[in-house]
Amino acid sequence: MTLVHQQQQLAEAFAHLRDSQERLSWLLAQARKRPLMDLSLRTEAHRVEGCMARLWLVADFREGRCYYQSESDSLIVKAVAGLMCEFYSGHTPAEILGHPPDFLTRLGITQQLTPNRRNGLSLVWDRIRLFAASHVPAEARRE
Fold it and tell me: Shortest CA distance to 53 belongs to which of 22, 68, 31?
């Protein structure tokens, strides 16, 4: 499934939510369903610095695709970071780099976040983007 298709699915899921409270409730419910990140991965090396909440992001590259997982001690941060990790996981670096998370604003997600949490969201995107960029094939970098 392409990122554009995934974005359309998210838009459909959000279309029936009447207001920001319902969107937030939906995000939090999704976060509660996610399995906890293994404690062995919650290390300083995986910590996203700059977030007020403790946030860990682990990236993996297999068979030409990037995979991400996150965990936070804040349910809201876990919800939004987890949504981004799920959204971008399983896609190639080029796909990820060509599709920044501006769709989150169109869905009304970023508007519900405090400035500190929006900053955390941009730090998550930076980590996702930098990891993807580090795995772009050498021949594609020359183009």
Answer: 31
